Amino acid sequence: MCGIVGIASTSSVNQKVYDALGLLQHRGQDSTGIATLDGSHIHVRKGKGMVKEAFRTRDMRALVGRVGLGHVRYATSGEAKNELEAQPFYVNAPYGIVLVHNGNLTNTRDLERELATRDMRHTNTGSDTEMMLNVLGSELQQLVGPAGLDAEQVFTAVSRTHDRIRGSYAVIALISGYGLLAFRDPYGIRPLVLGRREGGKGRTEWMVASESVALTASGYELVRDVDPGEAILIGLDGELQSQQTHPSSQLVPCSFEYVYLARPDSIMNGINVYESRLRLGERLADTIEKYTPSGAIDVVMPIPDSSRPAAMEVARKLGIEYREGYYKNRYVGRTFIMPGQEHRKKSVREKLNALASEFEGKNVLVVDDSIVRGTTSHEIVDMTRQVGANSVTFTSAAPPVRYPHVYGINMPSRHELIASGKTIPEINASLGSDFLVYQEVDDMTKAITEGSSIEKLEDSCFTGEYVTGDVSSEYLAWVERSQLS
Fold first, then answer.
1. pTM of whole model > 0.85?
2. For labeling, which of 107, 317, 401, 472 is most exposed (least CB within 10 Å)?
3. Helices in 229-374 by DSSP H: which ranges?
4. Has 461 been annotated as catalytic?
């Protein structure tokens, strides 16, 4: 999970990209980067930490041009602490290409060998994004003729890139002297949306981004999602061309985007995130009623912020009082996307505090969006008891996370997942709660996709079924050995 944005403007683009990245900051806090294109010149600035920490006035002045892209990073491949792996990445041939990527490639071992022996290209990091950039660059270089580069050659290069890479990817790139390129994997696992607005001299300005909130809050109209397997090319003159570049694409978006990752005020793949979370709460209420003894709950409490819509709907449907007793320190990062288990555990108490008067003597139903490693959940149960709760029923708006996620979410090891190989009563004992209720997989799917044309979600971390068809037990074992978490 990262956040990416690309803008083709009629005026200086640096501030526009900076502002859009701020709207996507929830998608990554490890590092950030911006690149701009000024004719044939590419300018790049990147740094560790959040957007407001990484860029200074001198950086922004150096980012000259009317076409640009940006990235906020949450590490799922390579090393979170390695500054060399901050995006965007750059190669100088052909023409000069700079690229950002949200997702995770699953065939990096093959790509590493191919790049060294077939393409004769060197990569300087373990980043799958750098590998993808070099694959794209190599395919473009084979197609460029004396007359230069045209849209058809770009789309052919993207099609060939699809043939060589596997996994999840939403990509934005700048090609020196030509413009902005964006494309999405054939399953549309990671999101990418397109927006426009009227710019100077009657020209259209374009934006592509991970979530619609980056568009609408910046004054752009949401046009549509970039289709799975589709490539979009926006020239320096603002002309947009698009083409389907994969022969058998189908939309299978990531379920975790709707459960946790995306902002509630976003729309992705035609699905309103906030409304999908309300529906998750509505279906969860039925399961709670089925498995929890009558009279065991006095009050419903959400864990802020992403579980709030589900908790409100649980309380409404069960006819139980909704209260807010947990308060969040907004100056501590999201514990789920922090690198390192020790860092996550330390941050839980810094991040949340419980108001004792809301808990004392009450039977509390806690609603969270999901339970992954269980670190946060266990600390919350302890905290809730310490402030006087009579009993704690813990509920998750998502099903048990039992399997590694390999498509761009930092869940590489089964050993880290509290639900892996355990029954729900065993998980309940580990958390220390009185009752534990999870969403059913089928209910989650129906809640998210209701009212859309989507028939299937990428839900491998709940079911162990990997949509790309190339994830073997050997590969998962390799990921567990090699991936830092």
1. yes
2. 472
3. 255-256, 273-291, 308-318, 341-351
4. no
